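User: I'm curious whether this sequence folds into something compact or stays loose and floppy. Could you predict its structure so I can see for myself?
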Amino acid sequence: MGKVTGFLEIDRQVQKYQPASDRIRHFREFTLPMSDKEVEKQAARCMDCGIPFCHGPTGCPIHNQIPDWNDLVYNGDWDSAIRNLHSTNNFPEFTGRICPAPCEEACTLNLEDIPVAIKTVEEAIADKAYETGHIRPYPPEKKTGKRVAVIGSGPAGMAAAQQLGRAGHDVHVYERESRPGGLMRYGIPDFKIEKHYIDRRIEQMQGEGVSFHCGVNVGVDKPVAELLAEHDAVLYCGGSETPRPANIPGDDLSGVYDAMPYLVQQNRRVGGEPIQSVAWPSHPIIAGGQHVVVVGGGDTASDCIGTAFRQGAVRVTQLDIRPQPPEKEDKLAVWPYWATKMRTSSSQAEGAEREFQVATLEFIGEDGQLTGVRCCEVDEKRKPIAGTEFVIRADLAFIAIGFAGPANDSVMKELDGEIKMVTDSRRSRNVEADDRVYRTSIDRLYAAGDVRRGQSLVVWAIREGRQAARAIDEALMGSSVLPR
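Assistant: Here's the prediction. I'll summarize afterward.
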């Protein structure tokens, strides 16, 4: 905890944003950092709550020891704070930027709508550690002689690779794209996380002995069977990439796209790469001067909105089939769990028009080109309400309703019929492996992250990568000192 009476004396404060009129003119991050003293004051608000739900399973999947490092920051011991934070989280500069902060929802002070600014403090600790040179390579003292391959370099693959490398194994990460990072690099826009943060971690991991092989599409360029023959264990962290089918008539019109090709394309532009991606090929998609409709209400939809505004869209409308949530949740009914309440992302705040409890009936067009989206209001069971149909003008439409499982054109294509799959409650078809040993039905092949648990958060990916690394280390060596 921080100062005993800090929560009584200090108001909650988080990072401010650049004005929307300024930030939509660029793709850089737009948060305005707080001074060390301001961050220390926010850390001081961490109270002696008795049971800190923030770092339990309800608040933080990776079990960050939040009261501990808040206290260290409050006392000005930033070096100890990053050591504590790194003991549970390999990449706090990622989670401090793109995690939705369920820890703050679980904070005891959230009962009064004034939770500790945990996410802001976490990001500040990580950035301070880079400034002071604390984040540098920490190679293992001795090597084990074991070789491990990791397929995919998203947060799950990166976390597993770093943990296995520090345990002394010879780790090789295979990434089909030209740079590591997975959808954290190519799916999440730069205005939410600039990619030099990923580059710095890759450089650190290479200094610790981890090898990255980019431009290698496992299952196409290099068979999984070959990896298994060359390594003592293989960990599959390919993510959940198959777009959930919308089954909306007219989705074959020119101008209608799944969200991910659009986001990947713009991230590649910002990164100075050719826009064509191995997994997400498409002709150029630009929203400048266009009327844009985004179907879906989650983070991916929000990222499409922010990207469209920065490209110069005339109007952006977001369609959400869910009812408009209440402005304020019933704390005693839902705390410390994630509450359903009205939330406005920074991208939505840039001028999006939001339609709730609306179904997308059809994409309509002329001569094969999208011209509008036919919609209607729905009841509580998502059934159309007669007489409520309307049409929204649209030159571009993006479908952002989630993902239904791993890509089926590479690893899964090779392993089809050999590897066991399971369908979850969201009807996503994922690789079957438990969350203790992470083994698949194929000997020496493990799976972790979204490819195993389905579409999820960056914190869950890091947790699964760390736990899978521990399981692999234990299987190879008989025991492990890696944390679980």
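Summary: The mean pLDDT is 96. The longest helix spans residues 458-477.
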